[in-house]
Specification:
The chain has 108 residues and is mostly helical. The chain is 64% helix and 0% strand. It has a single domain, classed as Tetratricopeptide repeat domain (Serine Threonine Protein Phosphatase 5, Tetratricopeptide repeat, Alpha Horseshoe). The chain is flat, with a radius of gyration of 13 Å. About 8% of the residues have low confidence.
Length: 108
């Protein structure tokens, strides 16, 4: 997958999150600090290009209750892409689309 189509997908999903009348996602700061710490740690690890560790932290944040935070899925998918785990990229985007009912927003 070349970078240009990937960023097109990310752009479409980002726009869909902004304009979708679907289920409202909670912002990151709405979660308790004990849960947010995993998200914050994952962001730092991703910035350091430590993608495998970032994936583990994002998934722990999801397991701890951030599964209803749309902001977690795009960087998680990016980490999977950097690791070459394209099946996980697709699964992560699919979960984002389904979880937040973005199907109609993504077809405009």
């Amino acid at each position: 997958m070349s970078p240009r189509p990937f960023f097109g997908i990310v752009g479409l999903l980002s726009m869909a999150l902004l304009v979708s009348p679907a289920r409202a996602a909670k912002p990151v700061d709405a979660y308790p600090p004990t849960v947010r710490q995993y998200f914050t740690q994952a962001e730092k690890l991703r910035d350091q290009e430590r993608y495998r560790e970032a994936v583990a932290s994002y998934n722990e944040a999801i397991r701890m209750g951030m599964g209803d935070c749309a902001e977690i899925y795009l960087p998680l998918a990016e980490c999977y892409r950097k690791l070459g785990e394209h099946g996980q990229v697709i699964a992560t985007y699919s979960r984002l689309i389904e979880e937040f009912d973005l199907t109609s927003a993504c077809r405009h």
